[in-house]
Inverse folding.
């Protein structure tokens, strides 16, 4: 099977979708001539021209607002926010406009746009370029949220996002762009909103998404050597959230850990832990444990950055304590 | 005369003054009625912003628009929507939070919209509706039907950065976009010269490369002329900006008594009445007062009826609460009550 | 004892603090001549002049950014955001700048500013003027968060916020401004960050804050009539969070409900429920139940608005089911 | 000559060209060294933006500043900080993410700051540091010591709305604030004329009521003159804007090869070298090449030492990770590990 990089799978998805749907266009900073800060859109401007790949000024609020208007007017914009850290400049257009328009207007119209961005640590990019802000999005009614962990999902979740009738925030992980996997994109994808069980075990369930899924799988390998078998669930999307899959697995093992790179307090791990607890309470032998990002900004120092978010070692250590 | 009275078609740039007068009178009367409804506590929403005094901006710019053009408005947008042909019954019931309203009672005065008329939505965020016209103009340009998209906003929004980002993009891409600032001199209790040193508002837009003008809103025909220049320029690929000078007759909200404005300023401001001005011009042109009274009465009757319509309409059904968060066919968000019951009924 | 309105207690706090500390100044839209959209700052401009009560243009991002710069330069700004719903325009300045400056700069300087704003439902103000966005703030490392429920706290929490070395987001509730209580402001306040036990019971603990504390107390009254005694905890601040008080009470009853007006998913209720569960797991006889806001935008319709957030009736009903 | 060589005091507006030359040379050489450190993979941070080609902006504006003035910079701010008197050792070690750096290794190149020199901070958010100078200028005006606050940013930031909000407030309140746009013609791969139709950048600022000029950055003395006019105007109560035209010699980041620029443009751009230009002027004025070489060598030695200093410095201790989230004395955030252990050790 051919090897494909996460970065290239995303480009492939945009390429295929744009060929299928003439109303799809890209709009963002450096998405054209430069090819994207992380090279995801490289070459697409040659393929589709400046009419469908719009390089913009550095005006995040207006970029998102322009996408909202274009979506209402009948096209399907893919706006790119170079770093999810810039979300703070755009949250009025994203959360007060895009997310609420269908509802406020009584269902007259939707906003079928995709906001592509990337987050997470791993490049020593500092406090304003390394955050995991998915909780802001997950907390906002009206927004869909997808966070692919695999090359296959990078392609298929983006293709599916580009068919959604409502705004989708699509958050890639900067440390996964270079990851290559042998992948057959022709295998039909699971339905939009379905979680994936990446590994099946009997002792403990780990629920995660994005880059941390790989850390969980690395930890699972190590734990297996020590005789501990864990199930690893990749939620793939956080809205919709496939809770049924989580429930089934947790009810089997009675033990659950949630792993997220976002700051722990009021983060995605809090929601997953609260939800698992309220829905699976009688099955739980242990409290759901949150292995999440620290409640601190991310340092540019490589050493500090590494320890600001979950590591495979911490996942292993925590699992062993849970099963001690 | 009669067909003018009966027609509620939006006035076009070559409609006569009489049609513009009627369009303005309908706005004035609608706002009077909704203001009464509000003061009687019968409208939904703790906030109601009337466009009385700004009728020439709504009607004058609307006259330069055509079918297929789109627009966004602000929190004081009733007049523009009416000028574009809105059904005042459904406006009134929406403002009353009733199910028969344009947005099924979910939006109200500040979130009213109608895609069939190109109204991409009012907005409760000052400046919030501005960038959407850049996107709509982008699409209009693609579709090649010669349409424009117009953002209406107040002088207060001139101090929102997103306006400059939006105008810059529109200019960069030669989009058929127009930015209309209805300068009623006030943003809540802040007079324009208390919000900026640069009160020649169009100069800012010009510095970004737009066709930019300021026009006095007293005479609706002047607004029609200026708006036609600016809007036609946008159709031809140069985005435009138009500031329409007028005065906010009432308080910021209907209950605000504007204690921060002097008697003198109030008097001078209200003297700049575009509706009265048009009426007087019509009489100078020989239209009889009787005819004008008849027209006014017909409009009053039409608007009185909107109140009855709104009152007779039902509140939205609670079952509609979880609808429209996502598209039809998508699962609705789970109600908190259902979650609680499932959690507690687990044994 | 004299009766005082929540709105006037806030004004009193600003007044007293400004007299004590000449470096405190107010900056925001309509805070001066107009006296604040909800009248909180009425008259302060006459008392302190335009030098210390700055009416600004409608420029939320720059208002918060200006406060950040003034705080770094040695003064203590109280910036006002007329509605918490406008947070989306300011989150870059609040979350990327104010919240991270001390950390990014290695502790060289702090940002001692207060961002006063108000949120919540109750005025049929629609989707963009009725939100409860405290979770965005609570999730952001580096920010303090206070949400007063009582007239006494409106005064004392604001006074304490104005002594903090770090940025404090101070969220009032629009439906509490007119609330009057008999209050003796001379009673010394609990330490900053301490929760208050508003009612002591033996059957169930309700943890809440802001307006919902009153709904919880109303519910407690009703429940008492039915023979159910509940403890009501008002966290008063969400950062710092006084978890010890919550722990002690929950361990006594073994049953806990969290009540928050914010949307349920990834909201403050999720954090409180997750935290209580992980820390008090062995004491819990029931899952912690979340009575929170619906995951939908708020309608202007009075009927829909009322049912979009917790009501005393729902709290009563839920408590009864928990104890059935 | 020697005292000029040995001094690292910021050059003032009446320092001679030699002092300005030395200040620019120090920036050029520092950037060369940090670029090498980065290319060898020894600097922290995946991003490094060099100000080579922009030295006259940093030195020229700095010359118009005085003690007590404050400033914010952007992601390409090394030069400005050096011009204001930064210790290159502590800069280099901060960029290397070392504990001995200005920000204890937490900030790096894009978040470097030094309150003792009035540096309110570099910023990784384009435009993010602009409004802070409005606040700092507000305080400077209160304190009445005649100080100004200056925001340095690039041409790309001209398209960020917050700039216009900030300039408007500064003008409205007559603040001693200055907005300096270092127009190196490019924002990543976007040339200024691909980001806006309005390339006469100062006209936008003028439309908001600021004193506004554009100056060619080739000759540092021209920049000194223009900056002195603008900064002195701000001290007198009229905020100013200055665009300094220059060229970004390297890529956006040090590793970017700028494939989007033509050979011709690269060559023409690099021909506008303010350091070389000053050097030639000095020789025309009779300064011997030998003296200039001696000065350059002294600067090289100084900057070589910064690399050794950075290398010899330690990584920050992990114990510093939870420090500085809140003020000293406040409880630090609980580490996730501690929470987990407490939760699991409960029995
Ligand atoms: C982003 C934002 N900031 C503040 C407000 C509160 N507000 C509503 S209307 C208004 C004044 C607007 O003035 P202007 O733009 O001139 O419109 P006008 O009311 O005069 O029609 C303000 C401050 C808001 N709704 N949105
Ligand atoms: C808000 C924001 N948007 C985008 C970026 C990514 N980015 C970093 S630098 C840059 C170009 C800035 O150009 P300019 O302002 O001219 O500064 P220069 O790099 O030329 O010095 C961009 C787009 C960012 N850091 N912050
Ligand atoms: Mg106005
Ligand atoms: Mg540049």
């Amino acid at each position: 099977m051919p090897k494909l990089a996460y970065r290239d799978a995303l480009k492939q998805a945009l390429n295929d979708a744009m060929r299928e749907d003439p109303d799809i266009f890209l709009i963002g900073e450096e998405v054209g001539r430069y090819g994207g800060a992380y090279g995801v859109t490289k070459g697409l401007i040659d393929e589709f021209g400046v009419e469908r790949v719009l390089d913009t000024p550095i005006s995040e609020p207006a970029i998102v607002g322009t996408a909202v208007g274009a979506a209402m007017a009948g096209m399907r914009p893919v706006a790119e926010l170079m770093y999810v850290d810039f979300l703070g400049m755009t949250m009025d257009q994203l959360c007060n406009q895009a997310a609420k328009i269908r509802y406020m207007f009584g269902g007259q119209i939707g906003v079928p746009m995709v906001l592509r961005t990337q987050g997470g640590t791993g490049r020593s990019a500092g406090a304003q370029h390394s955050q995991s802000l998915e909780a802001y999005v997950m907390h906002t009614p009206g927004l869909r949220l997808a966070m692919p962990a695999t090359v296959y999902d990078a392609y298929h979740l983006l293709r599916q996002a580009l068919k959604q009738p409502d705004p989708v925030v699509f958050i890639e992980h900067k440390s996964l762009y270079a990851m290559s996997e042998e992948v057959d994109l022709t295998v039909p994808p699971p339905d939009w909103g379905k979680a994936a069980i990446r590994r099946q075990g009997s002792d403990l369930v780990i629920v995660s998404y994005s880059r941390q899924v790989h850390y969980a799988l690395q930890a699972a390998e190590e734990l297996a050597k020590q005789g501990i078998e864990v199930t690893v669930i990749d939620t793939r999307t956080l809205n919709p959230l496939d809770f049924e899959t989580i429930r089934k697995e947790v009810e089997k093992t009675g033990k659950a850990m949630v792993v997220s790179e976002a700051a722990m307090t009021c983060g995605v791990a809090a929601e997953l832990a609260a939800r698992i607890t309220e829905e699976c309470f009688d099955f739980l032998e242990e409290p759901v444990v949150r292995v999440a990002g620290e409640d601190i900004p991310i340092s540019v120092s490589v050493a500090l950055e590494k320890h600001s978010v979950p590591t495979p070692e911490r996942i292993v250590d925590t699992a062993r304590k849970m099963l001690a | 005369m009669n067909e003018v009275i009966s027609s509620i078609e939006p006035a076009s740039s070559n409609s006569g003054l009489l049609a513009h007068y009627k369009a303005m009178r309908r706005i004035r009367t609608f706002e009077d009625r909704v203001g009464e409804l509000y003061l009687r506590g019968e409208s939904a929403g703790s906030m109601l912003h009337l466009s009385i005094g700004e009728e020439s901006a709504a009607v004058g710019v609307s006259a330069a628009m055509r079918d297929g053009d789109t627009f966004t408005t602000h929190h004081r947008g009733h007049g523009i929507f009416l000028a574009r042909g809105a059904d005042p019954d459904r406006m009134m019931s929406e403002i009353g939070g009733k199910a028969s309203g344009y947005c099924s009672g979910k939006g109200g005065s500040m979130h009213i919209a109608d895609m069939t008329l190109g109204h991409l939505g009012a907005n409760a965020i000052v400046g919030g509706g501005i960038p959407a016209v850049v996107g709509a103009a982008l699409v209009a340009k693609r579709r090649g039907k010669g349409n424009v998209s117009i953002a209406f906003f107040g002088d207060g929004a001139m101090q929102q950065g997103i306006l400059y980002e939006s105008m810059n993009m529109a200019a960069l891409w030669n989009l058929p976009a127009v930015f209309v600032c209805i300068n009623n001199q006030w943003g809540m209790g802040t007079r324009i010269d208390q919000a900026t040193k640069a009160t020649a508002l169009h100069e800012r837009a010009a510095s970004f490369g737009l066709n930019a003008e300021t026009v006095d809103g007293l005479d609706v025909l002047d607004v029609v002329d200026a708006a036609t220049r600016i809007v036609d320029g946008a159709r031809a690929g140069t985005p435009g900006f138009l500031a329409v000078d007028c005065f906010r007759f009432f308080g910021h909200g209907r209950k605000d008594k504007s204690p921060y404005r002097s008697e003198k300023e109030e008097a001078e401001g209200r003297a700049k009445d575009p509706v009265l001005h048009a009426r007087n011009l019509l009489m100078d042109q020989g239209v009889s007062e009787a005819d004008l009274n008849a027209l006014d009465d017909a409009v009053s009757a039409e608007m009185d009826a909107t109140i009855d319509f709104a009152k007779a309409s039902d509140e939205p059904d609670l079952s509609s609460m979880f609808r429209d968060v996502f598209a039809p066919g998508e699962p609705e968000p789970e109600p908190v009550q259902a979650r609680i019951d499932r959690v507690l009924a687990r044994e």
